[in-house]
């Protein structure tokens, strides 16, 4: 059974860089059938797509975050990662990693990682 | 960006009721639309993809329809486990966007 697990610091200071890693088990990030993405949800609010990456390394980002976001993939570790620079309190959210088949919505999600931006 | 608008924002219903949630896109997304269910403290769960295709393992009381700019999610007979928040999401073009959510409450 596919599983995704987010890991990374739960507290980040303003102006610093948020870094999260998603470890994939029971499947491969090298599959040509899927995109691997990040979605976030501020406390009590809705969902926002951040971006995703294909196994080739091609990445796509939300323009609202594009200048601050990098998503990368490490096929040797079966992981993909998110970096969000120059964070502010508005970036406080639960960050989810998820898989998207090329024909579908996001079908497998991690449990989510709460990241708080605070001094 | 394509804006996704769900209605209603909150829906009160009873076990056994048939309920429908609507999602409207600000421009056509063809049939590249998904529906999710989210419970408090949990990740969203995919219910429907390509507007009307039922995700594996999802009960058949859930169904989706529509294309272009107007879509619906229908639950034919509400069960206690169905009380949650529901989101639509398009994946027609970048950036993908979600509706604001519909909270389904027990009446």
Describe it for me?
The complex is a heterodimer of chains A (119) and B (107). With 119 residues, chain A is mainly beta. Chain A has strands spanning 3-7, 11-12, 18-25, 34-41, 48-54, 59-61, 69-74, 79-84, 93-101, 108-109, 113-117. In chain A, strands 2, 4, 5, 6, 9, 10 and 11 form a 7-stranded mixed beta sheet that branches. The model of chain A has no long low-confidence stretch (mean pLDDT 96). Chain B is mainly beta. Chain B contains no helices and 11 strands. In chain B, the strands form 2 sheets. In chain B, strands 2, 4, 5, 6, 9, 10 and 11 form a 7-stranded mixed beta sheet that branches. Chain B has a 4-stranded antiparallel beta sheet with strand order 1-3-8-7, with no helix packed on it. The model of chain B has no long low-confidence stretch (mean pLDDT 97). Chain A binds chain B through residues 46-49, 60-64, 96, 98, 100, 103-107, 109-112, and chain B through 1, 34-36, 42-46, 49-50, 53, 55, 87, 89, 91, 94-101.
Give the helix/strand layout.
The complex is a heterodimer of chains A (119) and B (107).
Chain A: E1 3-7, E2 11-12, E3 18-25, E4 34-41, E5 48-54, E6 59-61, E7 69-74, E8 79-84, E9 93-101, E10 108-109, E11 113-117
Parallel strand pairs in A: 2-11
Antiparallel strand pairs in A: 1-3, 3-8, 4-5, 4-9, 5-6, 7-8, 9-10, 9-11
Chain B: E1 4-7, E2 10-13, E3 19-25, E4 33-38, E5 45-49, E6 53-54, E7 62-67, E8 70-75, E9 85-90, E10 97-98, E11 102-106
Name its key features:
heterodimer, A: about 120 residues, four-stranded antiparallel beta sheet, globular, B: seven-stranded mixed beta sheet, about 0% helix
């Amino acid at each position: 059974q596919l599983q995704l697990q987010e890991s990374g610091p739960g507290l980040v200071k303003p102006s610093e860089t948020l870094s999260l890693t998603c470890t994939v088990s029971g499947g491969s990030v090298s599959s040509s059938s899927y995109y691997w993405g990040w979605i976030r949800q501020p406390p009590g609010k809705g969902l926002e797509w951040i971006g995703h990456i294909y196994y080739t390394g091609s990445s796509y980002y939300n323009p609202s975050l594009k200048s601050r976001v990098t998503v990368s993939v490490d096929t040797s570790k079966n992981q993909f990662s998110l970096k969000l620079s120059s964070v502010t309190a508005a970036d406080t959210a639960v960050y989810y990693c998820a898989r998207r088949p090329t024909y579908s919505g996001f079908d497998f999600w991690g449990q989510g990682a709460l990241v708080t931006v605070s001094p | 960006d394509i804006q996704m608008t769900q209605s209603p924002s909150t829906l009160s219903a009873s076990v056994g009721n048939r309920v429908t949630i609507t999602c409207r896109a600000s421009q056509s997304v063809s049939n590249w639309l998904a529906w999710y269910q989210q419970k408090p403290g949990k990740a969203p769960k995919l219910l429907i993809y390509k507007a009307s295709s039922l995700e594996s393992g999802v009960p058949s009381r859930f169904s989706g329809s529509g294309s272009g700019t107007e879509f619906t999610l229908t639950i034919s007979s509400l069960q206690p486990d169905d009380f949650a928040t529901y989101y639509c999401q398009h994946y027609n073009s970048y950036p993908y966007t979600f509706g604001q959510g519909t909270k389904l409450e027990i009446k």
